[in-house]
Amino acid sequence: MTEQLTLDNFKLYDTLYELHKTQTTFDKLEELVQAFRSMDPVGYQIIGLIIQKYSSSNLENVPYNGEKVAETQSVKFDIRNFDPVLQHMLLDFCLRHLTKMSE
């Protein structure tokens, strides 16, 4: 990535949201968990930005009953607490990113 991702210039988010904004259920939890486990550091960064933008949060107040992990300076979530639209967006991103990682 040559351009620094920010919430203001996050066209990928806009695309994912438009594709999945009408979703009301999610039944691919295990597939999403497996995709998360396969992410590289860039993928995790983008996942964090998608969650942050979707929740309209700065992650100082962790949304979706998540918790900060002080030792690793990261945030831990239970993805079952995510809205189905967000779950679909994250799975779509993960599958696209995994494909790109394997090229």
Kindly describe this structure.
This protein has 103 residues and is mostly helical. It has one domain. The protein has a two-stranded antiparallel sheet. The radius of gyration is 13 Å and the shape is globular. The mean pLDDT is 86.
Q: Based on DSSP secondary structure assignment, what is the total number of beta strands?
A: 2
User: What's the average pLDDT?
Assistant: 86
State the low-pLDDT regions, or none. Answer: none
Gyration radius, in Å: 13 Å
Written as H for each helix and E for each strand, in order along the chain, the element string is: HHHEEH
Percentage of residues assigned to helices: 40-55%
Brief write-up:
The chain is mostly helical. The chain is 51% helix and 6% strand.
SSE arrangement:
Blueprint: H1 11-20, H2 29-37, H3 41-55, E1 67-69, E2 74-76, H4 84-102
Antiparallel strand pairs: 1-2
Question: What are its keywords?
Answer:
mainly alpha, 103 residues, 2 strands, 4 helices
